[in-house]
Amino acid sequence: MEPAVSEPVRDQVAWTHLTEDIPRAKKCTVIGGSGFLGQHMVEQLLARGYAVNVFDIRQGFDNPQVQFFVGDLCSRQDLYPALKGVNTVFHCASPPPSSNNKELFYRVNYNGTKNVIETCKEAGVQKLILTSTASVIFEGVDIKNGTEDLPYAMKPIDYYTETKILQERVVLGANDPERNFLTTAIRPHGIFGPRDPQLVPILIEAARNGKMKFVIGNGKNLVDFTFVDNVVHGHILAAEQLSHDATLGGKAFHITNDEPIPFWTFLSRILTGLNYEAPKYYIPYWVAYYLALLLSLLVMVVSPVIQLQPTFTPMRVALAGTFHYYSCERAKKAMGYQPLVTMDDAVERTVQSFRHLQRVK
Ligand code: NAD
Asked: Which atom of ligand 1 is closest in space to residue 96's alpha carbon?
């Protein structure tokens, strides 16, 4: 029996008319399509002739070409109408990592994703492309050109990553060519670009509050930052290549700019591009790490009396001061991936799009 059908936001008749000539192979749903990556995904899918449903807990934008379904991905009843009749599902929804809410991450990223898989199968979806993260193999120590063969982190850096590991495992495990249900996981790292609500706004806020003065370590640690268009390109390629080569199913793929850059150089380019000063004082990595550890211990000691959420944590120090960049050779070989936008162009386009945040001299 089909679940009760929740009402889509847009007029079903008008939308059906708009998309009736599009073959089922080009019908897709973007779960989390109101988010930063999701909106870019929707734009590129439309540009490539796809009919696009968006499923999200909020309607983040308005576009007459898109059919919106507002609901919670943990609910089969909410989800089913958005998946029925589509060939491909892109799942890029997640609570924000900054929320640090263990229960929410487990509910949405793990249990919710199991619901996505089951509902995809019921609705006859043939391909599920998950947005995972390269951090599923990161434990706070250097990774240089890490491949997908590295094991999942035994000690993930936070609850968000812990549930991204569970999520990826369950999606890849659901790959079932015999039943015509193929799954794959795309692992980006450090997504940035126009309309990013996190990286650039938080960086500028920190600079305005005088908190961007120190480089942790010697400033040479290479990290992947990936332009959003390249991340989208990796997802669409994966979906299209899965149709020709089912052996891609059940696998994870790193998608990066393929131009690792020193963490502090990247931040400094964004800051100076918007007229803020780059950090110029150096603090040795281990000094910063043990200071953050000491602070965490103090927070733990006072926690029965006061609840504090420090931002200067050992894990943040590790993220800012270690090497962590990833090889995308597998994606290049298996699906012909090449980044579409170079780091120079990506930084320039991002800075231009955040001109409203620039410091007026
Ligand atoms: P985002 O917060 O901008 O978008 C996530 C979207 O998911 C939001 O629109 C939100 O409303 C939706 N969502 C959350 N809970 C939901 C629920 N229960 N039901 C339906 N929708 C729900 O995040 P983003 O930066 O665009 O990230 C997209 C994906 O990329 C996530 O899976 C994230 O883990 C992954 N990722 C992001 C980065 C990065 O640097 N931003 C890096 C690696 C991986």
From this structure: 2
Q: What is the CA radius of gyration of the chain?
A: 21
Amino acid at 62: D
Q: How far apart are CA 104 and CA 185, in angstroms?
A: 21
What are the φ and ψ backbone dihedral angles of 326, each rounded to 5 degrees? -130, 145
N-term to C-term CA, the chain = 64
Tokens of 45: 């899918």
Which residues are CB-contacts of 223 (< 8 A; sequence separation ≥ 6)? 189, 190, 260, 261, 262, 263, 266, 323, 324, 325
Q: Cβ neighbours of residue 117 under 8 Å, at least 6 residues apart?
A: 128, 170, 171, 174, 183
Predicted pLDDT at 1:
38
pTM score of the predicted model = 0.94
Q: Could you tell me if the CB of 89 is within 6 A of ligand 1?
A: no
- Enumerate residues 6+ apart whose C-beta is below 8 A from 18: 51, 64, 65
Residue nearest to atom 11 of ligand 1 (CA): 57
Two structure tokens written together for 315:
């894990």
Residue 93 CA: nearest ligand 1 atom is 7
160 given a catalytic annotation: yes
Q: Check residue 135 and report its DSSP letter.
A: G
Using CA positions, which residue lies closest to atom 34 of ligand 1?
Answer: 94
Strand segments, DSSP code E, in 82-234 are 88-91, 127-131, 143-146, 182-188, 191-192, 214-216, 222-223, 226-227
Residue 2 in this model has a pLDDT that exceeds 70: no
Pocket test for ligand 1, best of 37, 83, 106, 230 (most atoms within 8 A of CB): 37
- The amino acid at 315: M
Q: How do residues 278-293 score in pLDDT, each as one tens digit?
A: 999 999 999 999 999 9
The number of beta carbons lying within 10 Å of the beta carbon of residue 219 is 16
Helix (H, G, I), strand (E, B) or coil at 67: strand
Q: What is the pLDDT of residue 6?
A: 47
Q: Is 36 in the pocket of ligand 1 (CB under 6 A)?
A: yes
Token pair belonging to 223: 């990290």
- From 50, 110, 160, 325, the catalytic residue: 160
Q: Would the CB of 188 count as within 6 Å of ligand 1? A: yes
Q: Is 33 in the pocket of ligand 1 (CB under 6 A)?
A: no
